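ARCHIVE CARD
Drawer: 12
Card no.: 0347
Subject: one protein chain, sequence and derived structure
Cross-reference: see card 0346
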Amino acid sequence: MHRLIGLLLFVCAGTMFAAAPPEPAIPQARAAMARLPLRFEENRGQWDASVRFTARSAGADLQLTARGPAFLVGSSRVEIALVHASPSPVIEPLDQLPATTNYMVGARSQWHTGIANYSRVRYHSVYPGIDVVYYGNQNQLEYDFVLAPGANPDAIRLHFRGDVQVSLTPDGDLALRSDGAQVLQKAPVIHQDNRPIRGRYTLLAHNQVGFRLDRYDRTRPLVIDPILVYCAYMGSSGNDRITAMKMGPNGRLYITGYTPNGEIPAIEGAYNTLNAGRTDIFLAIIDTTDGNFTLKYFSYLGGADNDVPSALEVDSSGVAYLAGYTLSINFPMAGTSYQTTASSTGTKGFVATIDPSIAGGDSLTYSTYLGGTDGSTSINGMALDRAGFIYLIGNTRATDFPYTDSAYAKTLYGTQDAFLTKLDRNSVSLPYSTYLGGELTDEGRSIAVGTDGKVYFGITTTSTKFPLEGPGDRPTVNPGVHIVIGMMDMTKSLEASLVYSTYFGGSDNDEVRKITLDAKNNVILTGFTLSHDFPTTSDAVQYKAVGNTDVFVSIVNPNDPAHFLVYSTYFGGTHGEVAYDVKPDGAGNIYFTGYTLSPDLYTVGALNGWGGGIDVFVAAVTPGKPGHSGILFCTYLGASGTYVGNALVLGADGSIYVGGYGNIGMPITRGGYSGGVADGFLVVLK
């Protein structure tokens, strides 16, 4: 049903648009360059004598010595040496290219000009009857072991020399790790007379690797073809995260996250081209309509300390709204800020708007802090209404969090309360702001504004005395972690502003991660549950819990408490899942994403199987179709390692955009390399 049409590693603390170019034309050029063959330059005295050929690529410089290839993993030089091979094989360049290279540095006597370039290099008789041929493109190195009839493949031993750890992935690839970076050498492709032969790597002592082959005709030639993917992700040397995405006008996909350094070049005209602190926010905009996913905008935003965005909205004119939390006391202020200063301790909420149509520093058209002086505050969710008002939800420990005279609650009740705030970026006063919480800890997770003007919210709470209003679905709960779903009318005052609130879920721990609304102002929510009695409906695709934790997808109607539960289902496998984002389409299907530890999800139209670790899942269900018939789509995305889907956007053309972060190893169709422990990614499914 869907196919993977693009994958970009974005930044998320080392952003994936790592090599983000100064002009929009550069990404297309890089994509084209990635398909070009490697050019092996002959050493004519321009390098150390041990180097026979060098190839420069988009990901790294590759050297061929008498022993074999050498390249960088992170900052460590790694060499793939052939154990017990001929110490001085005959090295023959093949397929000379029309290009030549000139080095005119220093005195004329030191110049090296007219250096030939080749697309392949062959090492003859490295073992008896075995040659090796090196070639590839800008993203990977291939090397074929060409075995003459009767040659022994058991003689081939690869020694990965250097500060590197070598391991086998569940897919049979070799993972090479050093300095927090990783490259992959894919499982070998083995063939004889165009017929595939089964085989695999075998790990030996001291970072040595051999090959194990199934039966083949030893009287015929054989080719063993490993592929070294040294350019698989784009990212910085740190940990990167994509935290939110939104589709803007004209097919422009807006993406935000955070990055710990300034290694990603900003686009000319950005608000800020440099990282200002420990972790900075980034805003990236991609044109999804040109077939090349061209990066149109990339900017940093932040102060001298850690800044993390959690929510992103885009208005009809393409202005980006960002909200989250910051430790910076010098977060840049602009416009009619409600709060221009912040305490030096704890986190503070922030809201900022960037207009990408304005070049340079003036593109930050509004920003403000939001918080108190004696406790941390974080903004976790944001929504916009048609009049341009900003609605925020989060949590605070401050006893002096700003509230309005019309607030439902004006004092902190528990150790941490949720808050709901309406913000006018054209005014220095707040239209509405209130605490909302019980006697323990409450965390405002997600917010939405209905076509009826009411504000809908999802809260995770440990409080057993959360304020409830209306005929609740669950008037009381046992101690634990629970969900609260509610609705406010911020045009009203005091107790009248809380129109409805209820606990929702089972008797064990449940958490809401995201809410959204359908066309009828029903609340669609997702998260995870440990409850074995989480409420489900007769058209659920999964009626019972299966794993330690399962995802839930539910539709509820706070405007009709008598018919509150519209749809609800478990979703998961035997080992556990968490969902982070949910979106409905125009046909009534519900799409959601997160991560899974389970190898046995019920997949439909799957692009990938389970990778063996923590994988992204992307799924869609159709209310009204019970059982597995209601699963419209479900696939894994990832490999061995950790991959988390944080954000999901549905395109007008049916494309699904999934953003998150993960280790190296996810299949890449577009991108560069990553030097980080974890990088952000964007997956496009169509």
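Annotation on reverse: Residues 3-36, 230-237, 668-678 have pLDDT under 50 and may be disordered. DSSP finds one helix and 45 strands in the chain.
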